[in-house]
Amino acid sequence: MKSNAAAIAACFSALVAATPAAASLDLAKAKGCTACHDVAKKVVGPAYSEVAKKYKAAAGGQATMTTSILKGSTGKWGPIPMPPNKVTEEEAKKLAAWISTL
Fold first, then answer.
1. Which domain CATH number covers 89?
2. Which of 41, 64, 92, 100 is the most exposed place for a label (fewest CB within 10 A)?
3. To the nearest whole number, what is the mean pLDDT of the chain?
4. Other CB atoms closer than 10 Å to residue 2's CB: what's the count?
5. Helical H runs in the chain?
6. How far is CA 17 from the centre of its chain?
7. Torsion of CA 63, 67, 70, 76, to 10 degrees
8. How many distinct structural domains can be found in the chain?
């Protein structure tokens, strides 16, 4: 019985841990971010996984992503600028935190 309880607890923990990521991908879809970005491949802009590689280990990386999401950016990933997004600061922070997990 102990092993069943441990297995159930592990499954529950995995489900709870996966929920914020799914919620953040849902937020990215809802805000139109996925028109230009994909988790694993370049679309118009870089893949979220590439953005994560560039910024998650950098000092202030999450803040940099948040600012870019809110205000847009130019020249970080090539000649195509990223326009400002219609998100709240809280939503931008959630998106940046999610990208950092990839």
1. 1.10.760.10
2. 41
3. 85
4. 6
5. 2-30, 48-55, 61-71, 89-100
6. 15
7. -120
8. 1
Longest Cα separation, the chain = 59
Q: List, for residues 11-34, the tens digit of each pLDDT value.
A: 444 444 444 567 799 999 999 999
Amino acid letter at 81? P
Cβ within 8 Å of residue 29, ≥6 positions away = none
Residue 70: pLDDT above 80? Answer: yes
C-alpha 101/C-alpha 73 separation (Å) is: 21
Residue 81 domain boundaries: 2-100
| Span between the terminal Cα atoms of the chain, in Å | 35
Residues 6 or more apart in contact with residue 20 via CB below 8 angstroms: 98
Q: Are 52 and 100 in contact (CB under 8 A)?
A: yes
